[in-house]
C-alpha cells in the first residue's frame, strides 16, 4: 500500500471518530438542556466515569422518557444499544433497579432486544426484577417476551424464542425463576407461574443450574414452602439422580393461581342466568330462542342468539354440557344430544380445573354421561371433516389440573363403560401417562383376567404392564400394595415376567402383597389359601419370588410378619411348609433376624404359630419363654410373671394336698370373662386368668374357634371353700393394672358359718351354739 492510501485511510478514521464525538456531544448537550429545564441535579462523581453518559444514566434512573424521543429524530439507536454502566448494565437494567415501569415499557417498544442483554454477572433485566420481587415489572417483561420474538437474541441452550428470556441463565446457571425462589420472593414466583405459557412451565420447573439444582430443589433448600417437598438422592451408577416426591409443591400453587385468574376473566363474560337455568333444568326451548322482556311487557320477544351465546361459560368455566353432565338426570340425555349437534365445539372447552366434558363423562356412570360418550365420536369426526387443514385438538388426550386424562379418571372411579369407549376411540389410551407417571393399568380397580377392559388394554399395549410410575412402581407392584388381588393374578397370568420387577427398595410384589377388600374374609384364611394362594404359587415366576431378599435382606415372609400383614403371613407360611427345604425359616435379614426371631419379637397370628408348631416345636419353644411370653417382652413383663408364678406355685401346692372330695374333677364350674380383649383369648392367657380363680380344665368350642366374641368361657375347678370373686386383676403388657369382670355359670351352696354345703339356716353347728 502506498503512502497516499495510508494517509487517506487514516484521515477517514479520524473523520469517523470526530463524527462520533460530535454526535455524543450533541446528545449530551440536548439531554443536559432538558435536565436543566427539569431542574435536575448533576449525578454523583463516581457515575461520571462510566461508559454510559451520566445524563442517560440519570434519565433511566428517574424514568425520564423524553430522552427516548431523540431516537426518532436523530437515528441514534446504536448509542442506546451499546452504552452500558461499569457493571455492563443497559438502560433497562438500571430502570428495573429504579422501578421505572413506564420507562421500561417505552424503551422496550423502541429497543426490544435490550431485554436479552446481560450484565457482568450474566443477569438479564428479568433476573434483576426477580431478585427484587418487582411483580409488575416481571409481568411486563414476560409479556414483552411473549409478544416480541427477537430473532437477534442468542440462546446457548437451544431453546425456542418464546423461552429465551424466561430460561436465560446467569453465570451461576440460574434462570430468573431460580433467582426469585433463591431470594424467597414467593409472589414473584407465582407471577412466573401465572404469566408463562403452559408449554414453558415444564421447562421452568425442571431446568437445572450449574449445581444441578432445579427451582424445586432451591425451594426445599430454603424451606420456602415448609414440608411440601422432600428430595431423596439416589446414586444410579456415576450419575446423581434427584428424585422429587412432591406432596404440595409449587406446581399446585401455579395451578391454583392460573385457575383463579381464569375464573376472574370468566366472571366478566360469564354465562347469563337464562342460559344457566336452561342448562340446569335441561330446557330444550333455549335452543330455539330466548325470551327477553321488552320494557314492561311480560311476554317480551323471542331473540335467537348467535353461536357465541351458547359457548359462554360460568365463573368456574363450566359450559352447558358441563352443567348437564353434573346434573346426571335422565332428562338431560336429549339436552346433551341437542347441544352437541348444534354446538360441537363445546367438547373442547375446559373448566377452571382443566376438565373438559369428556373428563366429567368419564368420572360419572349415569345415563347422561353414557349419552355424551355415545355421541362424542360422531361429533368429533364431523368437526374433523370440517377442519381438514391444521391440527385439531384431541380432548381425550387433554390433562386436567390433577394431570389426569379422561381414561385415568374413568378407571379411578371404576367407570368401565367410559374406559372401554375411550379405548375404542384411541387404542393408544392404554399407554397414556398422567403427571404421576401412571398408566391406565396403574389405576384400574376390580378386574378379571377375561374382563374385556383388561383384555383390550393388554392386547394393544402390553408394554404398559412394565411401565413405572413416579414412585417406581409397576402396575403389578401398585396392585399388590393396594390389595387388589384379582388384578395381581390377571397381570401375572398375562405378563408373568413382570413378577421379577422390584420397587426402589428391592421389594417384589410378594413383599408388598396385601389382602383387602370384598374378596377377602379374614376369618377364612384356609379357604382363601385354597382359592388364591395355591393358584398364585402355581405360576413359577410368582413362586420364585418367595426367596427374594429386598435391600434390607427381608424375604416376603419377613416383611409380612414385621408389618403385621396377617393373611399374607399365613399364606406364605403355608406355602413354605409345603416345600422340603422350608428356606424362609432359615434365611436371615441384614440385622441377623430369622423368622424364628421375628416370631418372638412381633405380634403373630395364632394360625401362623400353630402351623409352625406342628412342624417345628423347637422353633416355638425358642421363640417363647416358659410362660408363653415373647422373649423380647420378658423384661417388661417380669413383674407380672413373678406374681403369676407365685400364684401357680400356690395352686399346685394346694391341689397336691387337698382333702379328697374338695374338688369335683369331673364337672368343674363354668367361668365367664365378659368383654375380654381378643388378644387374651389364647390358651396361655386364658390359663393364667383361670389360675387366679382355680385350676383351669378346658375351654369350650366357641371360645377356641372365636366364633362368639361376647365372652370367653372356660371350665375351672374351684374349691368349695374358695372365693368366687366378681373380678380378677392382672398387669398387662404395658404395666397397666387391668380389672376383668368374672361371672360363674354355677356356684355351690355354701354356709357362711361353717363353709360346708348347706344354707346358713340349716347349719347344725350354729344351731348347737344357740341351744347352749
TrEMBL record:
ANK repeat positions: 121-153, 471-494
Keywords, alphabetical: ANK repeat, Membrane, Repeat, Transmembrane, Transmembrane helix
Chief place of localization: membrane
Residue intervals of the PGG domain: 633-672
Pfam families: Ank (PF00023), Ank_2 (PF12796), PGG (PF13962)
Protein localization: Membrane
CC per GO annotation: plasma membrane
Superkingdom: Eukaryota
Family matches, as SMART domains: ANK
Region Disordered, annotated ranges: 1-22
Membrane topology of this protein: Multi-pass membrane protein
PROSITE patterns listed in its UniProt record: ANK_REP_REGION, ANK_REPEAT
Record PANTHER family: ANKYRIN REPEAT-CONTAINING PROTEIN ITN1-LIKE ISOFORM X1, PROTEIN PHOSPHATASE 1 REGULATORY SUBUNIT
Protein name as annotated: PGG domain-containing protein
Taxonomic source organism: Carnegiea gigantea
Amino acid at each position: 500500500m502506498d503512502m497516499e492510501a495510508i494517509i487517506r485511510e487514516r484521515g477517514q478514521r479520524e473523520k469517523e471518530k470526530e463524527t462520533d464525538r460530535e454526535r455524543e456531544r450533541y446528545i449530551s448537550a440536548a439531554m443536559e438542556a432538558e435536565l436543566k429545564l427539569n431542574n435536575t441535579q448533576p449525578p454523583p462523581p463516581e457515575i461520571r466515569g462510566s461508559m454510559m453518559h451520566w445524563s442517560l444514566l440519570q434519565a433511566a434512573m428517574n424514568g425520564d422518557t423524553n430522552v427516548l424521543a431523540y431516537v426518532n429524530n436523530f437515528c441514534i439507536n446504536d448509542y442506546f444499544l451499546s452504552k452500558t454502566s461499569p457493571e455492563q448494565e443497559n438502560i433497562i437494567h438500571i430502570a428495573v433497579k429504579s422501578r421505572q415501569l413506564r420507562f421500561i415499557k417505552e424503551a422496550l417498544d423502541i429497543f426490544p432486544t435490550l431485554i436479552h442483554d446481560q450484565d457482568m454477572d450474566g443477569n438479564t433485566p428479568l433476573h434483576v426484577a426477580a431478585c427484587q420481587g418487582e411483580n409488575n415489572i416481571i409481568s411486563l417483561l414476560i409479556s414483552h417476551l411473549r409478544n416480541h420474538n427477537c430473532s437477534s437474541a442468542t440462546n446457548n441452550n437451544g431453546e425456542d424464542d418464546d423461552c429465551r428470556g424466561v430460561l436465560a441463565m446467569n453465570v451461576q446457571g440460574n434462570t430468573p425463576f431460580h433467582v426469585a425462589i433463591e431470594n424467597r420472593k414467593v409472589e414473584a414466583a407465582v407471577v412466573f407461574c401465572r404469566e408463562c405459557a403452559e408449554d414453558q412451565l415444564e421447562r421452568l420447573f425442571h431446568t437445572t443450574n450449574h449445581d444441578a439444582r432445579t427451582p424445586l430443589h432451591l425451594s426445599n433448600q430454603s424451606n420456602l414452602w415448609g414440608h411440601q417437598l422432600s428430595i431423596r438422592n439416589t446414586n444410579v451408577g456415576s450419575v446423581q439422580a434427584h428424585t422429587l416426591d412432591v406432596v404440595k409443591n409449587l406446581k399446585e400453587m401455579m395451578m391454583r393461581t392460573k385457575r383463579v385468574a381464569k375464573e376472574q376473566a370468566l366472571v366478566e363474560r360469564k354465562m347469563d342466568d337464562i342460559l344457566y337455568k336452561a342448562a340446569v333444568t335441561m330446557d330444550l326451548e333455549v335452543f330455539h330462542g330466548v325470551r327477553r322482556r321488552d320494557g314492561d311487557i311480560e311476554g317480551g320477544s323471542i331473540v335467537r342468539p348467535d353461536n357465541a351465546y351458547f359457548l359462554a361459560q360460568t365463573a368456574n368455566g363450566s359450559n352447558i354440557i358441563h352443567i348437564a353432565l353434573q346434573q346426571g338426570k335422565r332428562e338431560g340425555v336429549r339436552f346433551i344430544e341437542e347441544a352437541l349437534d348444534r354446538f360441537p365445539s363445546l367438547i373442547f372447552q375446559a373448566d377452571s380445573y382443566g376438565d373438559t366434558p369428556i373428563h366429567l363423562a368419564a368420572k360419572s356412570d349415569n345415563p347422561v354421561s353414557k349419552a355424551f360418550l355415545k355421541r362424542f365420536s360422531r361429533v368429533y369426526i364431523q368437526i374433523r371433516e370440517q377442519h381438514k387443514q391444521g391440527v385439531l385438538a384431541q380432548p381425550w388426550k387433554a390433562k386436567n389440573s390433577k394431570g389426569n386424562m379422561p381414561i385415568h379418571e374413568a378407571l379411578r372411579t371404576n367407570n368401565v363403560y367410559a374406559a372401554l369407549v375411550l379405548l375404542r376411540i384411541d387404542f393408544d389410551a392404554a399407554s397414556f401417562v398422567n403427571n404421576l407417571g401412571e398408566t391406565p393399568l396403574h389405576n384400574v380397580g376390580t378386574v378379571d383376567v377375561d374382563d374385556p377392559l383388561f383384555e383390550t388394554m393388554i392386547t394393544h399395549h402390553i408394554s404398559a404392564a412394565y411401565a413405572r410410575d413416579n414412585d417406581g412402581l409397576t402396575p403389578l407392584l401398585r396392585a399388590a400394595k393396594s390389595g387388589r388381588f384379582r388384578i395381581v393374578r390377571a397381570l401375572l397370568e398375562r405378563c408373568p415376567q413382570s413378577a421379577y420387577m422390584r420397587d426402589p427398595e428391592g421389594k417384589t410384589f410378594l413383599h408388598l402383597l396385601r389382602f383387602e377388600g370384598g374378596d377377602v374374609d379374614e376369618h377364612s384364611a384356609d379357604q382363601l389359601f385354597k382359592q388364591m394362594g395355591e393358584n398364585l404359587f402355581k405360576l413359577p415366576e410368582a413362586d420364585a419370588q418367595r426367596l427374594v431378599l429386598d435391600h434390607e435382606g427381608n424375604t416376603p415372609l419377613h416383611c409380612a410378619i414385621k408389618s403385621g400383614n396377617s393373611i399374607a403371613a399365613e399364606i406364605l407360611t403355608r406355602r413354605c411348609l409345603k416345600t422340603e427345604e422350608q428356606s424362609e425359616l432359615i434365611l436371615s435379614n441384614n440385622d441377623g433376624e430369622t423368622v424364628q426371631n421375628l416370631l418372638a419379637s412381633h405380634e403373630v397370628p395364632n394360625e401362623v404359630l400353630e402351623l409352625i408348631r406342628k412342624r417345628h416345636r423347637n422353633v416355638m419353644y425358642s421363640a417363647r419363654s416358659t410362660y408363653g411370653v415373647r422373649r423380647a417382652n420378658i423384661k417388661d413383663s417380669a413383674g407380672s410373671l413373678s406374681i403369676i408364678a407365685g400364684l401357680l406355685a400356690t395352686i399346685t401346692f394346694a391341689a397336691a394336698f387337698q382333702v379328697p372330695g374338695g374338688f369335683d374333677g369331673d364337672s368343674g364350674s363354668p367361668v365367664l370373662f365378659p368383654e375380654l380383649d381378643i388378644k387374651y383369648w389364647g390358651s396361655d392367657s386364658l390359663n393364667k386368668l383361670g389360675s387366679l380363680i382355680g385350676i383351669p380344665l378346658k375351654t369350650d368350642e366357641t371360645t377356641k374357634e372365636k366364633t362368639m366374641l361376647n365372652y370367653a368361657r372356660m371350665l375351672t375347678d374351684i374349691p368349695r371353700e374358695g372365693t368366687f370373686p366378681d373380678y380378677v386383676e392382672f398387669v398387662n403388657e404395658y404395666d397397666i393394672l387391668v380389672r376383668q369382670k368374672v361371672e360363674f355359670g354355677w356356684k355351690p351352696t355354701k354356709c357362711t358359718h361353717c363353709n360346708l354345703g348347706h344354707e346358713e339356716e340349716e347349719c347344725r353347728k350354729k344351731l348347737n351354739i344357740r341351744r347352749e
